[in-house]
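Notes from the 1:1 (GR / supervisor)

We went over the backlog. Supervisor wanted to see one worked example end to end before approving the batch request, so GR pasted a single chain during the call. The sequence is below; no edits were made to it. Supervisor asked that the structure be written out right there so they could see what the output format looks like.
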Amino acid sequence: MADDKEVPDEEADVAAMLDLSKKKKKKKKKTKKDDDEKAGGDGEGGSDAADVSEQERLLKEMDEAQEFAGEESDRKADYTYDELLDRVVDLLQANNPDLIEKKRTRIKPPQLQLLSSKKTLWVNFQEICSMMQRDPQHVYQFFMAELGTEGSLDGNQRLIIRGRYLAKYIESLLRKYVVEYVTCEMCRSPSTDLVRDQRSRLYLCHCRECGSTRSVAPIRSGYHATSRADRRAARNAKA
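Structure output shown during the call:
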């Protein structure tokens, strides 16, 4: 009887060990590889969505840029220096064309003729004074003071100068007169007026273009040749 009880117990133990029908299912352990694959799958999906949103944003910015470029006048604080300069020049040309286009006044060179060995005739003296818009008497006083001689105006307003002079020398003095009594020091325009102030008795050069005013140097007294009668009168005055 004892042997019969041991046999069933052994069979039960073997059956329990080899019972495949009631075999327990083992839980599959999650490996790191599976987690990485799952995470990788989710990442690819998120990356695709991010790419789509980025493309949409870029397309929207391109559309806005095209609309922005189509209306250059509506841009704010986005002008370059050259663009601003061009706009200023265009406005000046449209509203004040005289300020952009400089008008050059060409003065004819003096035409001289020798009347004799001691006299020189300035033929176009009156014409040059008219071009400079200056009083012939003022120009006459300037040249007599610079040349240190005497002269006179004939009936045709031609200047007769005592002495022999070359045209180049007279032209150099004419340029000096233009710089001192004609040209504006601010804008270099020859459109000026020479007026005498009643209070200070000084000559003022007023520019009609820019409106500036400056005082000019007075003309020093010119040379005066004394004759015998002048010397006799001077001696009598001292006596």
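Supervisor's comment: The helical segments are 2-18, 32-70, 81-95, 97-100, 125-132, 136-147, 167-181, 228-238.
Batch request approved.
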